[in-house]
Design brief:
homodimer; alpha/beta; Helicase, Ruva Protein, domain 3; 2 domains; four-stranded parallel sheet; 8 helices
Chain lengths: ~200, ~200
């Protein structure tokens, strides 16, 4: 087998969810692409990896020192939504319903994976709150064991701030979910937090 | 959203089987990779796309003018196995059972996709046979409509060569396949070509 092909298949199959067969299929596709399109792709990956930064205020991925959301003067600067990762921030942004700021932790506390609270950007969050002007912190963290641990850790850290409202996003049955297939914990939560129809 | 991230997600999602969500997941993985590993990956893709050649004898992908298989003096030079694409050649090589040469067509005849016989490397095959020394041509082409069309076209082109044995690979039930789920045409072929147990 060609060494050039072998190298490319080897490199591509290091990516998550891409086995050797898929890598080979991708390589064959790359071969059919215009040479310039391939160079555009590789150079955008290189620029992304070497030039991307973390926003100094919220830890979001950013091209500049401050991300477009933190730099946006029209956003509500009194509310911070805390998320695990940038993908979560993007999911919330896609709803176009939230106009506050974000704070990206960069993971969740996980003793199994050796992620301690100090590995997350929690100090950056408390420093921001200390500077004042924040009225509400929304904890939009996943309901995994690690997520819950992180949630309680952050709630404890925020206990000292009087007049700060700390909320979590609602747990319940998702739209389109069939009750039959929803897990018991979610149903229990959904029942406990039932609302009267107005 | 960061433009660097947006560009990378956009470029990655142009690849087959990779949607925006997968592209985002890959981008996040790339961010966690060592910078040097990312540059190794992109440069191997670039080298592959810009430097790879087609073997002048069999149209296989090759780093040199002649591919390692055609250059291998220990292989049986009287047998040529004709395949659609490089991936098929690799599947056969992986069995370690075939010691002859190959010929890679680079596709199958497909009027729908505008692929005419002249777009395939069929002349290169007949020229090789004309030079003499070939005893058998094995047509290992898929059983799709396009594959069968290509098979018959090549069989016709080879009709003029007397003393040349032209064969196709056996059709039948694959090992591990459950009869219940095998299509009728395959079962029909498998029944017609049944063998006496020795």
């Amino acid at each position: 087998m060609s060494k050039l092909l072998q190298d490319t298949v080897g490199e591509l199959s290091k990516l998550p969810g891409i086995g050797r067969r898929t890598a080979l299929r991708l390589a064959m596709h790359i071969l059919k692409m215009e040479q310039q399109s391939v160079l555009d792709m590789t150079s955008s990956i290189e620029r992304f990896r070497t030039q991307i930064r973390h926003c100094s205020q919220c830890n979001n991925l950013s091209d500049e020192e401050i991300c477009p959301i933190c730099a946006d003067a029209t956003r509500d600067r009194s509310t911070i939504c805390v998320v695990e990762q940038v993908a979560d921030l993007m999911s919330i942004e896609n709803t176009h319903q939230y106009r506050g700021l974000y704070h990206v932790l960069g993971g969740v506390i996980s003793p199994m994976q050796g992620i301690a609270p100090s590995d997350l950007k929690i100090d950056l969050l408390t420093e921001k709150i200390e500077r004042g002007g924040i009225r509400e912190v929304i904890l939009a963290i996943s309901t995994s064991v690690e997520g819950e641990t992180t949630l309680f850790y952050i709630m404890n850290r925020l206990r000292g701030f009087t007049d700060l409202k700390v909320t979590t996003i609602a747990r319940g049955i998702g739209f389109g979910d069939e009750l039959e297939y929803v897990d018991e914990l979610t149903i229990t939560h959904a029942l406990m937090n039932r609302r009267e129809i107005e």
